[in-house]
Amino acid sequence: MSENPIQHVVPDELAVETPIFISYLEQFGLPTDNIIASTEERNVISSNLPTLSGAENF
Q1: Residue-wise pLDDT tens digits, 16-45
Q2: DSSP for 4-45?
């Protein structure tokens, strides 16, 4: 993971087919191909990833 701070994603930015969510996943080094998560699921992911990765201080 890079030394750049993680950019938090606001749930309103998680619309289907948005490059914002892909960029968010890339910050964690996660795959970004064929994402099929709904907007609600993306909200859960954006809320949980910082805690799981130890990047909750952003």
Answers
A1: 557 888 888 888 888 989 888 888 888 888
A2: SPP-PPPGGG--TT-HHHHHHHHHTT---TT----HHHHHHH
What does the alpha-carbon distance between residue 17 and residue 33 come to, in Å, rounded to a whole number?
11
**Residue 42 in contact with residue 21, Cβ under 8 Å?**
yes
Give SS3 for 3: coil
SS3 52: helix
C-beta separation of 22 from 29 below 8 A: no
Nearest Cα to Cα of residue 10 among 2, 1, 21, 19: 21
* Cα separation, 54 vs 41, whole angstroms: 20
